[in-house]
Amino acid sequence: MKKIAIVGGGIAGLAAGVYAQNCGFDTTIYESHTMPGGACTSWKRKGYIFEGAMHWLTGSSPKSSYHQLWRDVGAINDQVQFHSVDPFLTVECEGQIVCLYRNLARWQQHLISIAPEDDKEIKRLCSDLSDFSKFSMPIKDLKGLKLRKPIVFEKFNLLKFVALLPAIIRIGYYAKISSKDYARRFKNPAIRLLLRSITGDEYAATATVFTLATLMNGDGAFPDGGSLAMAARMAAKYQSLGGVIEYKHKVAKIVVKEGRAVGLEVNDRQVDADAVIITQDAAVATQDLFEKPLSDRWVLQMRNTLVPKSCTFLCVGTKADLCNEPKSGVFIAGTPLKLGDCQFNIINYHLYSAESGYAPGKGTAITSIIGGDSYDFWKNRELAGTYKQTKEQLAQDFIAVLTQHFPHLKGQIEVWDVATPLTYERYIHSYKGSWMGISTVGSKMGMYPCKVRSIENVYFAGQRISPPGGLPSAVNTARTAVQHLCRDFDVAFG
Ligand SMILES: Cc1cc2nc3c(=O)[nH]c(=O)nc-3n(C[C@H](O)[C@H](O)[C@H](O)COP(=O)(O)OP(=O)(O)OC[C@H]3O[C@@H](n4cnc5c(N)ncnc54)[C@H](O)[C@@H]3O)c2cc1C
User: Fold this and answer.
1) 261 lines ligand 1 (CB under 6 A)
2) Nearest atom of ligand 1 to the alpha carbon of 37
3) Best probe residue, ligand 1, of 28, 29, 32 (max atoms within 8 Å of C-beta)
4) What is the 3-state secondary structure (H, E, C) of 420-482?
5) Whose CA is nearest to atom 48 of ligand 1?
6) 18 contacts 74 by C-beta, under 8 angstroms
7) What residue spans define the domains of the chain?
8) How far are the Cα atoms of 25, 110, 135, 197, 243 from residue 129, in angstroms, in the given order?
């Protein structure tokens, strides 16, 4: 049996492990942390669980091409319930409330009732969303791969493609404009804010409209137990297939002999392997895990074009029962939060109730994401010895902003926590603590090759291999990496 070493036990590493075990390989995952999941995680403080990653799962709907992949790797099964929060988002701006409903007709009606002045743009957007929701992200198989059983993904259909042509042309329009500039096409300030809040200002508007189409299509629900439970289910499936996870094992180097990977250096020892699958952020792994940084064309392109998506993640646990408030919302703060020279007055929040196990008593776990690349800001605070104080100050400012918005929080806060890009960097060893990329105007999407020319038997998977990243990229690249492995070792996939 061929021995495969997998670097990293995040979603890509676990998925690669499941696929490879199913194909008859003998795999071990080396994970630097003490638990599976990587960026896809949550953590507990004083009885409150802070959901640290997934807000929606592309592939929750059986109609989505990703659904089967998630089932393959044990992330979901018939027992896992999904929650489709509706409205998905509630935005409060200048005295108006605008909701993002998951039903397109309802949403269109709601938007027009709020902003008749935007009637034309609203109808155009909703008509495009109706077309975009017919797209299904293609899951491809490698050419020349032996299959144990036929794979049932939809084959290319010329007629369907022709029917989609008008929508494909419209994609070009959204790809050329940032989501912020696209939002400016609407006169109503609340609608503008909603459109800017879906993915963030830096993204091309394609990300906004495809996220909307996902939600309108009945996809993008939240699985029971969130990020950590999903990672735990995958780890259990992997181990049930005979896979081994070595926690607290940080891989230092890939051992290469005569142009071929033959093992790993990990915890001061060498482990032999017939092949290696690397799921650490490829932007870092291609630099750090080899004698010399890899310089294949795609590797250089990946590094040169990478726009990291990271965040400062704010968490608050409160005794207050917020069950009558929107589950996810955006509002404008009276006093902006500050990170150095950057000010943030658009505040997003997610509320997780006691009912779903996230808080004790009748309390609520609250999380919020401050986007933007704040890596250097936090690094400088660390160097200056003021990292902890700055986190504390930010948490207090955030609590003040929240209490202004939800007055019944006053005196009810039990715990807070702040994770910065440095926290993510420490835990997942990614580029600037990022956990995916940003699809800016003109940026490349698709999948980088999972292999390099210079070294045989090394395969790459993970969010960075398929920009802009996220959970679907992690599982799909893992599947493709294992398909490469199967083809190279003349093993049937399935
Ligand atoms: C706040 C937040 C919100 C998010 N929201 C969503 C969402 O709603 N939907 C969505 O699809 N995605 C979301 N994501 C992104 C998603 O969670 C990640 O893109 C995905 O989990 C990445 O998986 P991965 O396996 O590719 O990488 P990682 O999770 O980075 O996994 C890599 C693993 O390798 C380990 N590792 C690294 N280096 C080494 C080494 N040298 N030796 C041993 N182990 C190593 C790390 O510890 C880690 O466990 C969110 C992420 C965050 C943080």
Assistant:
1) no
2) 49
3) 32
4) CHHHHHHHHCCHHHCCEECCCCCCCCCCCCCECCCCECEEECCHHHCCCCCHHHHHHHHHHHH
5) 38
6) yes
7) 3-42+65-77+224-307+439-488, 102-138+154-217, 311-431
8) 43, 15, 10, 17, 42
Separation of alpha carbons 216 and 209, rounded Å: 10
pLDDT category at 450 given cuts 50, 70, 90 is: very high
Which contacts of 74-79 are long-range, i.e. CB under 8 A and separated by 24 or more positions? 74/18, 74/233, 74/234, 74/236, 74/237, 74/238, 75/11, 75/15, 75/223, 75/230, 75/233, 75/234, 75/475, 76/223, 76/230, 76/233, 77/233
Strands (E), 10-158: 26-30, 42-45, 48-51, 82-83, 89-93, 96-100
Distance 50 CA to ligand 1 centre (A): 16
Which atom of ligand 1 lies nearest, measured to the CA of 227?
17
Measure 34 CA to ligand 1 centroid, in angstroms: 14
Atom of ligand 1 minimally distant from the CA of 427? 47
pLDDT, tens only, 127-169 = 999 999 888 777 889 999 999 876 666 666 777 777 778 788 8
For the CA atoms of 451, 446, 208, 401, the dihedral, rounded to the nearest 10 degrees, stands at: 10
For 172-185, how does the pLDDT look when each residue is reduced to its tens digit (9 = 90+)?
999 999 999 999 99
**What is the architecture of the domain spanning 3-42+65-77+224-307+439-488?**
3-Layer(bba) Sandwich (3.50)
With a 6 A CB cut-off, is 38 part of the ligand 1 pocket?
Answer: yes
